[in-house]
Design a protein that fits this description.
Blueprint: H1 3-21, H2 26-33, H3 37-44, H4 52-62, H5 66-70, H6 79-86, H7 88-91, H8 102-111, H9 113-129, H10 134-149, H11 154-167, H12 177-188, E1 191-193, E2 208-211, E3 216-219, H13 225-240, E4 249-250, H14 258-275, H15 278-289, H16 296-306, H17 310-325, E5 329-337, E6 340-348, H18 369-383, E7 392-399, E8 405-414, E9 421-430, H19 433-438, E10 449-451, H20 474-492
Parallel strand pairs: 1-3, 7-10
Antiparallel strand pairs: 2-3, 2-4, 5-6, 5-9, 7-8, 8-9
Helix pairs in contact: 1-8, 2-3, 6-9, 11-14, 12-13, 13-14
Length: about 500
């Protein structure tokens, strides 16, 4: 959506509003202003914006000033609509990526402004009630876009391959942190500073900050070598892909547009493809999937062989496993802070019944591999205090009450910059014939099995069926009571 389209829409809404106040039809306004009714209809539909002399003619007939019509301010009843049209998250949102041409959306807004304003007001009230911000909307849109495209982007893969080839003739070898820093300095004109962030206590939550003058990438000195390599490769990604609108901190301090969120994702995708090249990783995955039994050490060997973080590896698998092996997968990232479990990142290509997310304040089922690893990690890392960063690895076959079945493997470990927060990363596969043929160790009968559900509040299992419940089934009981009322009402009626 462009500012020009917004101007056309606002002008069309104001013209229709003033025409109807004076009880004029389009034909009557056209006759009085020497303009055709069809032309005025296109203006009101947000398709055209009249020239100055025609605006004067219309204003004279409507008994208002030129400025009244061209002002971008709408009446108080359109406050929500005004904010919607002018917000960066909407103004720059590429609706066409989701099959909604901007012109069609503008036509809807122009034709039914009161109804659309009421709808937006309702959505706004719900968002405020559940503490849903613009960033939640933008990331949900990004996630939907990734799921629509299979989370695989050939153009970025090719750019990453070309970069690796130019950086090192031996394309199958690891890309070193020093080589990445050298390229960033020589080709992108950006130096790397590994000390500045340590000076500001409030800035230690950031992994990196991109300073503009002079161009510098400030790295948090607490990062591991593999984390630093990813951040530098990501910074190179902005240059290699010519991405302008972007975040200047990692994680982002502020996100105001879909373009920014999408560009940040593309730069991260580029970094993952550079550090974990498609050909090399797919070869390793074929060998990994051929293992007859589940071996946690084999997953750790993949980490060691490619020298990346657990999150980089697991998320990269969510990109390559569907595209290169044809398997339906999902990726989940959970955190545990003081016993509070949160789902902070997800990608769902497997039709997984994902539990409620933002602001739900519900307790996730403790039988999920993701949450079980967090529970086990709290005790496991305590016993292994000398190696607090070594991941806990696990696998599980999970089945929902409706019969849906998934094979999952995952890791859990404390976050380097916030050791009081533990993160679990899970890659899950829809169990079908394709998985049975491709992932041999998915048949391993030593892998734990569990019947799982969404959240404790929605779960119908009683104490005899589940010993892992951490909250009463309040929402399930409410649903049962509502169903009982429906049955009794139906019998009466």
């Amino acid at each position: 959506m462009t500012p020009t389209l917004n101007l056309k829409t606002i002008f069309g809404i104001k013209l229709k509003q003033r025409r109807e106040r004076r009880h004029l039809t389009l034909a009557q306004l056209g006759q009085a202003s020497s303009l055709s009714a069809s032309y005025l209809a296109e203006i009101e539909a947000g398709k055209k914006y009249p020239k100055a002399e025609k605006i004067w003619q219309i204003a004279e007939v409507l008994g208002c000033t030129y400025d009244d019509l061209v002002s971008t301010r709408l009446g108080h009843e359109f406050t929500e609509l005004q904010q919607f049209l002018s917000s960066p998250g909407v103004r720059d949102f590429p609706f066409d990526l989701f099959g909604v041409p901007a012109a069609d959306l503008m036509k809807l807004l122009a034709q039914s402004p009161h109804e659309v304003a009421a709808l937006i007001r309702t959505v706004g009230d719900l968002a405020r009630e559940h503490n849903i911000g613009v960033e939640h909307f933008l990331h949900a849109a990004l996630r939907c876009y990734q799921e629509l495209t299979g989370n695989y982007y050939e153009a970025i893969e090719e750019k990453a391959e070309a970069f690796r080839s130019a950086l090192s003739p031996e394309r199958r070898g690891l890309v070193s942190f020093d080589a990445l820093v050298g390229h960033l300095r020589a080709e992108c004109g950006c130096a790397v500073d590994e000390h500045a962030l340590a000076a500001g206590p409030a800035l230690r939550q950031f992994r990196a900050v991109r300073a503009a003058s002079p161009p510098r990438l400030l790295l948090n000195p607490a990062l591991t070598v593999s984390q630093r390599a990813f951040v530098v490769a990501r910074e190179i990604g902005y240059h290699a892909l010519d991405l302008k609108r972007r975040s200047f901190t990692t994680p982002p301090h502020r996100e105001g547009s879909f373009e920014q969120v999408l560009n940040d994702f593309k730069a991260s995708y580029f970094a993952g493809a550079v550090l974990l090249p498609r050909g090399r990783l797919v070869t390793d995955l074929r060998a990994f999937f051929r293992l007859p039994t589940w071996q946690a050490e084999a997953l750790l060997r993949l980490l060691d062989r490619h020298q990346v973080t657990a999150e980089t590896l697991m998320y990269r698998l969510s990109q390559l496993v569907p595209s290169q092996f044809g398997l339906r997968v999902h990726f989940l990232k959970f955190t545990d802070q003081g016993g509070q479990f949160q789902l902070v990142k997800q990608l769902n290509l497997s039709d997984l019944p994902v539990p409620p997310g933002i602001g739900a304040a519900e307790h996730y089922c403790r039988r999920w591999l993701s949450t079980r690893l967090l529970v086990e990690a709290a005790a496991w890392h305590g016993r292994r205090a000398r190696h607090p960063r070594s991941p806990l690895v696990g696998a599980q076959r999970s089945r929902f009450p409706d019969g849906k079945e998934f094979f999952c493997m995952g890791l859990a470990q404390p976050q380097p910059l916030q050791p009081d927060i533990t993160t679990s990363l899970t890659l899950g596969f829809t169990v079908d014939q394709k998985v049975r043929d491709t992932v041999r160790f998915a048949h391993d009968r030593t892998i734990p099995e569990a019947v799982i559900n969404g959240t404790c509040e929605r779960c119908p299992f009683d104490a005899s069926e589940c010993a892992d419940r951490v909250a009463p089934p309040t929402l399930h009981l409410k649903s049962q009571a509502r169903d009982q009322r429906e049955r009794e009402l139906n019998s009466l009626l």
